[in-house]
Write a structure and sequence with these properties.
Layout lengths: L2 E6 L2 E6 L5 H16 L4 E5 L8 H16 L3 E5 L3 H10 L7 E2 L2 H9 L1
Parallel strand pairs: 2-3, 3-4, 4-5
Antiparallel strand pairs: 1-2
Helix pairs in contact: 1-2
Length: 112
């Protein structure tokens, strides 16, 4: 379960190839730490491939979100399937982190 990353308009976009679980999020946690050391603070997680959410993975995501926001940055989500979106709503994270239907819409939101 890996992910690939690219930068678009100053936003680092991480595309997942698996679910939002603890092992995946540990990889993201490490990548985010490296990005923060380079002063990169605009992060977008593309969840188009994710079909499942684990509470442990969400916990790691929230931890990273707090760290990034403490440094005046943000993490946003995009391209979630309905199942993932419902899971995040049930956990209660939807009020904590912004999500968008498309990558383009999410990237534009960083400039707003």
């Amino acid at each position: 379960m890996a992910f690939r990353m690219r930068t678009k308009m100053g936003v680092d976009v991480l595309h997942f190839s698996g679910d939002l679980d603890a092992s995946q999020m540990v990889q993201v946690k490490n990548r985010v730490a490296r990005l923060l050391r380079k002063n990169r603070k605009k992060l977008l997680l593309d969840l188009s491939q994710a079909r499942r959410v684990e509470l442990a993975g969400v916990g790691i995501l929230v931890d990273r979100l707090r760290t990034v926001r403490a440094r005046k940055g943000d993490i946003k989500l995009c391209n979630m399937c309905p199942e993932v979106q419902r899971s995040l709503e049930m956990i209660g994270i939807n009020g904590l982190i912004e999500s968008f239907r498309s990558e383009e819409e999410a990237i534009r939101s960083f400039a707003a």
